[in-house]
Design brief:
With 286 residues, the protein is α/β, with parallel strands linked by helices. Helices cover 42% and strands 17% of the residues.
Length: 286
C-alpha cells in the first residue's frame, strides 16, 4: 500500500504482483452488507475490483489499483474535473507506485479517462477501454444526462424526495438522484471540457496496443427527466468496428451483455488478461 498525492487530496494505492505494470482505477474495498446488496440488485459485483486485480496479478502483471471514482465521491472536484485534470490524477497514481511505464484499463467513463490519458502522455504501454467506444463516443448525450443529473441534485438538496418504493433495477425514470450537486457537478465539468473532442485526431496519436470492448446491448434510452438522451455505447463500437480494426484496435462485442453485465470479472478477465499478457509479457524478438 502506498499513497498518491492528487491535486486535491491523498488517495490510497494498492500494489499486487510483479511484472509489467497495469493501472486499474478500481476499489479494492468490499462495501458493507446494505450497499453490497443494493449493488447486487442492479447486477453489479461488490468485489469486482479485488477480483480483477487478483486475476491480473496471477497472470504475471504488477497491478496498481486505486479507487479514483470513490475518491471523487468523497472529494468532489466540482469546477476542476476536466479531462486534463483526470489525466494528471491518473499519472499521479502511477507515480506513487513508481510505475514509469504502465498499461491502463478502465470501464465506462473511466475508459474515456484512459483515452484522455493516452493522448497526454508517452508513458502508456497499452490501453484497454471497456464500455465506452473510442470512436463514436456519446459525448453530447452524456453531457445531456449529466446536466439533468446536476439539475435534479440541486433540486433534491433543497427539497429531498421521498424514497421511491420498489424501483426496478435499470428503471432510470423512477430512480431518484441522491448525489450532491458537487458530486454531480464535477462530471458536468468533465463532459463540458470534452465539447468538440476530435476522436479521430486523438486516435491518430495513440500508437500503443489498444483494446475496446462493450456489451452487445449496451445502449440506454433515457426518459424526459434525463433530457431524452440516447447513450449508444454498443452502437458506437459496432458502427465503427471496421475502422477501429483498420487503425490497429482489437475490438470485442460481448454477446447478450448490457453495461453492467459486460463489466463483470467473469466477462472482463477472459478478454483482458490474455490480451494484456500477450502484449506486455511477449518475449523479446530475436
Amino acid at each position: 500500500m502506498t499513497t498518491a498525492q492528487l491535486h486535491d487530496a491523498a488517495l490510497d494505492v494498492t500494489i499486487l504482483g510483479d511484472g509489467p505494470a497495469v493501472l486499474l482505477p478500481v476499489s479494492m474495498q468490499v462495501p458493507g452488507p446494505e450497499a453490497a446488496e443494493q449493488m447486487r440488485a442492479w447486477g453489479a459485483d461488490p468485489t469486482l475490483g479485488r477480483t480483477l486485480a487478483s486475476a491480473l496479478a496471477d497472470a504475471g502483471l504488477r497491478v496498481v489499483a486505486a479507487d479514483y471514482e470513490g475518491h471523487l465521491a468523497a472529494h468532489p472536484q466540482h469546477h476542476t474535473l476536466t479531462a486534463a485534470q483526470v489525466a494528471q490524477d491518473l499519472l499521479a497514481i502511477a507515480d506513487a507506485a513508481g510505475a514509469e511505464r504502465f498499461a491502463y484499463y478502465g470501464y465506462s467513463w473511466l475508459a474515456l479517462a484512459g483515452l484522455q490519458l493516452a493522448i497526454r502522455t508517452d508513458r502508456l504501454t497499452a490501453l484497454a477501454m471497456g464500455g465506452f467506444p473510442p470512436l463514436g463516443g456519446p459525448y453530447e448525450p452524456m453531457l445531456t444526462v449529466t446536466e439533468a443529473t446536476y439539475r435534479m441534485a440541486l433540486a433534491n438538496r433543497a427539497d429531498p424526495p421521498a424514497p421511491a418504493a420498489d424501483v426496478q433495477p435499470g428503471d432510470w425514470d423512477a430512480t431518484e438522484v441522491t448525489v450532491s450537486p458537487e458530486q454531480a457537478g464535477q462530471y458536468l465539468t468533465l463532459y463540458e471540457s470534452l465539447r468538440g473532442f476530435d476522436e479521430r485526431a486523438a486516435l491518430d496519436r495513440v500508437r500503443v496496443p489498444r483494446l475496446a470492448f462493450a456489451g452487445e446491448n449496451d445502449d440506454i434510452q433515457y426518459g424526459e427527466r434525463w433530457g431524452g438522451a440516447y447513450v449508444g455505447l454498443a452502437d458506437g463500437l459496432k458502427q465503427h468496428r471496421d475502422e477501429l480494426v483498420a487503425r490497429g484496435w482489437t475490438v470485442e462485442v460481448v454477446p447478450g451483455a448490457d453495461h453492467i453485465a459486460a463489466m463483470q470479472a467473469r466477462t472482463v478477465v477472459p478478454i483482458l488478461a490474455p490480451w494484456l499478457t500477450a502484449h506486455l509479457l511477449r518475449p523479446p524478438q530475436e
